[in-house]
Amino acid sequence: MSSKADKIVVFVTASTEQEAKNIARLLVEQRKVACVNIVPRVHSLFWWQGKLDSAQETLLIAKTRASLLPQVIDVVEKAHSYDVPEIIALPIIGGNEDYLRWIADETVEGDRGNSAEA
After folding, report:
1. What is the pLDDT of residues 31-56, one digit of tens each?
2. Which of 27, 43, 45, 60 is deepest in the core (most CB within 10 A)?
3. What angle do CA 87, 61, 36 make, to 5 degrees?
């Protein structure tokens, strides 16, 4: 039985919807995450290189195990166009037990998960 505390939600912003779809596909196919929601047209306001800036971005919301976070970060950094991509993780403190179990069942430790049909 898995603990709720070992599951996380990872937020990643991408420059375009296509970039977000590419990153999401890599994460799911490599089984580093169980699911990714893609939220288009997020307006971001932020400080960058000493100036206030803004951008239209796409937000990815990924669900996975905490132990896979380093691998998720690695996949995202390699596929991302930003010098410093946003990759932040928040703990899941509760939820549907069946869904939380499903997250664990659908993710794989190690270098590469089993790809879905290519």
Report:
1. 999 999 999 999 999 999 999 999 99
2. 27
3. 115
